[in-house]
Amino acid sequence: MLTRRLQDSVFGLLLRAGVSVDIRSARCGFFGDLFMALNGIRFAEISNAAICRIKWGRESLYYEPQWGTNVWDYYFESSEFELSDGLKSLVHLPYRPGAEAFRPYAQMGIRESVNCAIRRYCRPRIDILSALESFVISRFCYPRMLGVHVRLTDAAKGLEGRRTVTIDDFVRSSDAWLDAHQDSGIFLAADDERVIARFFDSFGDRVVTTDSIRSSDGTSLHGHYDAGVSGSPKQKGSEVLLDALLLSRCDHLIRTHSRVTCFSICCNLSLTWEDLDLKLLGVDRSPWLRN
Predict the structure, then answer these.
(1) Looking at the predicted structure, is the pLDDT value of residue 9 above 80?
(2) Half-sphere exposure of 184 (CA within 13 A, CB side)
(3) Mean pLDDT over residues 150-162, rounded?
(4) Contact predicate 159/198, CB 8 Å
(5) What are the pLDDT digits (tens) for 181-230?
(6) What pLDDT, in 10s, does the model give residues 248-276?
(7) What is the pTM of this model?
(8) Residue 189 phi/psi, 5° resolution?
(9) Is 80 a residue whose pLDDT tops 90?
(10) Which DSSP string corresponds to the chain?
């Protein structure tokens, strides 16, 4: 197998010859695939590729053939990007970089650079933007909103070498924020119904959530490591994208590691956040957000 550096060198030589690059799904979660796509586009930019296409096909966890053959097009306006004036060929190279490998633009940190890439390459479809604005107008009813993202299911099982904090830890941190900012409501994004119930028990109608497919027994929502919760794959993708966009509209974010909130933090450069993995476990899985 080629090393990452050698792979980059080979692809770079080919792309400089004017070929195009296709980026496919690696069959991981929505934002794992999205960050891989952004890294692939960035690599194509650096290598002076003529054109880059994102093609999430039937290998994607969110594929539903009745909605089309390219899953990316279910959610975003464009999946094909002209990057240079070089010769366009019919040679396609699947390139699947890691989610933390984004190469910053000149005189920018990684977070600011990813923000630029999101604005250029990840423009949501109008139906998703309409749902976002409608929810903010109708449900963000407090002067300030605390965003809370709680991922249990596969994360709570320790997969990917994870350690995780408890629901009570999230509640305590949220309570401390609300004590200091009493004009705040909570937007809660979670993959498990037990989290929703616990927050409503603790904070009542200060909590708002989307009406989404969730797990009730610890089964992973999107089918990363098991059969997943039943329901439309396309709908699951729409719901997690909407949750991430709504979290980005909040004033402060309480999180543990998730690429959902990595996306939210990159979308809104003014968003502050508290990482409970770092605070309570001493584990920092996304140091690139601070670089």
Answers:
(1) no
(2) 22
(3) 61
(4) no
(5) 999 999 999 988 999 999 999 999 999 999 998 877 766 666 565 556 77
(6) 999 999 999 899 999 999 999 999 999 99
(7) 0.88
(8) -115, 120
(9) yes
(10) ---HHHHHHHHHHHHHTT--EEEE--S--HHHHHHHHHHHHHHHHHTT-SEEEEE--TTSTT--GGG-S-THHHHBS-SEEE--SSPP-S--------TT-PPPPTT--HHHHHHHHHHHH--B-HHHHHHHHHHHHHH--SSEEEEEEE--HHHHTTGGG-----HHHHHHHHHHHHHH-TTEEEEEEESBHHHHHHHHHHHGGGEE------BSSS--SS-SSSS--SS-HHHHHHHHHHHHHHHHTSSEEEE-S-HHHHHHHHH-TT-EEEEHIIIII---S-GGGG-
Distance separating alpha carbons of residues 149 and 262, to the nearest angstrom: 11
Bridge partners for 273 per DSSP: 253
Name 269's Cβ contacts closer than 8 Å, sequence gap at least 6.
111, 112, 115
| Structure-block tokens of residue 282 | 């001493």
